[in-house]
Write a structure and sequence with these properties.
elongated, mainly beta, 16 strands, 10-stranded mixed beta sheet, 6-stranded mixed beta sheet, 4 helices
Length: 254
């Protein structure tokens, strides 16, 4: 896990936890077809998981290695390995990063009062296969973290050492006027379970409260704690003279 923790630090540092990068990045960051804002009036929501791809390093786990030897051999680099593994059902290990872009879509102000994680499924960590690639080492964004090991995970501030702090919406709200956009960098963490989860946001429009559910394009987000050992290991060895996918019953590197 230590080889991949630096990625979290780098990602959050890039946002100044999470600082301004320039409004021109809104259209760029959410430009591809599957990442554009989709209607859910009066609040439009854009969701993009793995916003930084797999080239900076990643660690995933799958429930079973069945069929993975053939499936993962189609990968040709770290980024494609992550995409193929995710399509095969693999989940992020220990932490995941998701970009949300919220936009007001009503003539009246939209006030976001609270956010929490809705646990859809919780169970033992996945231990069928480990899939990884070692790390090579706009707009004002809000960083929130969900500790999915909590019984009722709430959106929390991200504090030093990249861990959840006090509840973010304790004394804070986010107000959006029509057309106003607010990005969130969402960090989810677990050290104990396999979790499928969604985000519930309490919003107020014209003094009326409602709850909006945010999912991964209609499906729950997925994350798993690290297993003590796996039946199968896969790693893209980009530093070798001829980069290739390692497949074996033990880790390729320590």
């Amino acid at each position: 896990m230590r080889r991949y923790g630096a990625k979290v630090v780098a990602v959050l540092a890039a946002f100044g936890v999470l600082g301004a990068v320039g409004t021109r990045l809104v259209s760029h960051v959410f430009s591809s077809a599957d990442e554009k804002l989709h209607a859910g009036k009066p609040l439009l929501i854009g969701v993009r998981q793995d916003p930084h791809g797999g080239s900076d390093g990643f660690l995933l786990a799958a429930d079973s290695p069945s069929g993975l030897d053939t499936t993962l051999r189609t990968a040709h680099d770290c980024d494609s390995l992550m995409k193929v593994a995710k399509r095969a059902g693999a989940a992020d290990v220990n932490f995941s990063i998701t970009d949300l872009l919220l936009e007001g879509a009503t003539l009246r102000d939209v006030t976001i009062l609270d956010m929490r994680a809705k646990i859809v499924k919780r169970g033992p960590p996945l231990a069928g296969a480990e899939i990884g690639c070692a790390s090579a080492g706009s707009i004002d964004a809000l960083g929130v973290a969900f500790n999915l090991d909590e019984q009722t995970p709430v959106a929390r501030q991200i504090v030093e050492s990249i861990r959840p702090g006090k509840p973010y919406f304790q004394g804070n709200v986010v107000e959006l006027k029509k057309g106003e956009q607010q990005p969130f960098e969402v960090l989810a963490l677990t050290n104990r379970y396999y979790v499928e989860w969604e985000i519930e946001a309490d919003v107020r429009i014209d003094n009326k409260d409602r709850t909006v559910t945010i999912s991964n394009h209609g499906k729950p987000f997925k994350i798993t704690a690290s297993g003590k050992s796996y039946a199968r290991y896969y790693e893209w060895l980009w530093a070798d003279q001829t980069p290739h996918l390692y497949i074996g019953s033990t880790r390729a590197t320590g």
